[in-house]
Amino acid sequence: MNNNNNIFKYIFAIVVVFLVAYTLYVIFQSKADNSDTNLDQTSTLSNIQTDLRLSIAQIDTINPLLTNNRNVQEITKIIYDPLVTLNENYKLEYCLAEEIAKSDDLNYVVKLRSGVVWENNTNFTVDDVIYTIELIQNGVSPIYSENLRKVESVEAIDSNTLKIKLIEPEPFFEYNLTFPIMCKSYYEGEDFVSSQKAPIGTGMFKIVEYSSNVIKLVPNGNYWNTNRKPMATEININLYNSIGECYSAFKNGEIDILSVKINDVENYIGNLGYNKIEYKSREYDFLAFNTQNELLSDPIVRKAISLSIDKNNIVATCLGKGYTPSNFSLDMGNWLYTKDLNISTDTEQAAQLLINNGWERTSNSWIKRTDGKTLRLEFSLTVNTNNQSRVNVAENIKNQLANLGIPVSINYLSADNYNEAIGNRNFDSALIGIKLGYSPSLETFFGNGNLANYNNNEVAEIMNIVANTTDEKTLYEKYSRLYDIYLEEAPYIGLYRNTDVLVYNQSLVGNITANTFNIFHNIEKWYRR
Known about the structure:
With 529 residues, the chain is α+β, with helices and mostly antiparallel strands. It has helices at residues 2-36, 70-75, 126-137, 243-251, 262-269, 299-308, 311-319, 347-356, 388-402, 415-423, 443-446, 457-466, 472-489; strands spanning 51-57, 84-86, 92-94, 97-102, 107-112, 151-158, 161-166, 205-210, 214-219, 234-240, 257-261, 274-289, 323-325, 360-362, 365-370, 373-376, 379-384, 408-413, 429-435, 492-505, 508-509, 527-528. Strands 11, 12, 13, 17, 18, 19 and 20 form a seven-stranded mixed β-sheet that branches.
């Protein structure tokens, strides 16, 4: 009997050992498989490096609300989470917010993600969000104050829910909630602005070292998004006194990735030995027509003018590198820019449009006889003399249209007088440059009081619908129709926009993309080879 018991115990022990070994194998193999899915075909887990190297030039503070430094603004997106974030196509994705419901035109209810903790293990609550909003409204943040300009009040409904009330309606308001959230309890008893502490976050990485020449990050073990476990085991952010030092460090292989202005690439880095991604910025210049002007109220005249302007010529002649032709405010890569709105230069078609509309070309001008009077096709173009680039563009447009027989007089105004003229819509046409928001809102161009004094009943109906729906199919359909109307009626002519560049070493591997909101999309899949 004892022998049988011993045999049974022996067999049982073998089974237990086998099960434990098999379980460990499955766990480690699963981890290896997950890591392998992030590797390219030429890499293995044994030959990759999992430390990344970034840089900041002339750091002011690592605090994402207080900084004016572009590099800090870029890097802190992987440390500090917002309520919502934007993907590569500027499409909204929930982050610390789990859901946002629009009660009416002025009220939004924000339900926060449950189970989120700060890197120091304290719970993330509605108090942190309200604290951050109040900080921004009190003027501590130079870059996020505009986001909350229309917020009248914010109040807690419970520990995981808050209500935001606006002063007036703002289409796509949710896109403003991209500011990083700060931990209220972390600053208990001290002034946020004067504090010397680096803020704690809820993001993918956390700060573990902050010295005079380096900031070291490691993965945040408390990160709520378990589907985005980073391959990088540490990130070293080297601190430099100037952007020139950053360029030198990049050339020497000490930095993996760097965002630069395109004109700086060849001058400071050269042309070889790195990869480059050029992407469109939010700086957008366009021509606005005053559609209440007698001549320019005619969409056929506006379209003929649009067909007569060569944007490539403008960029090549007046601007050069760092600019690209642009046809519409959303063509920087927005998810709702679903059509190519390019209008190729075609002066023959432009002339034929005018002829079909009753215009006659005599010598170097166009005239039209209607209602017992003779109209001459000419108009003025208002430009800010404080911006020499735009003055050059205005003069280029004048010369291009002169070749079609359309005289343009340039109205050179000082900055103050220019801004007054634009504000009062006191112009025939105007060369305007703006910094676009991240949302797909087109209120500036087609909403009430828009820059062109443009009125169209169907457009007004579309604007009302898109301001009150989140249904993607509806948005696609309405924006598509809006683009058709834009092409036919041409209340504006898109001209050009700035471009930025992301350069990265050839040893850096991963799905590397960039837009003006975030240059670190998919950083959890990055590694060095």
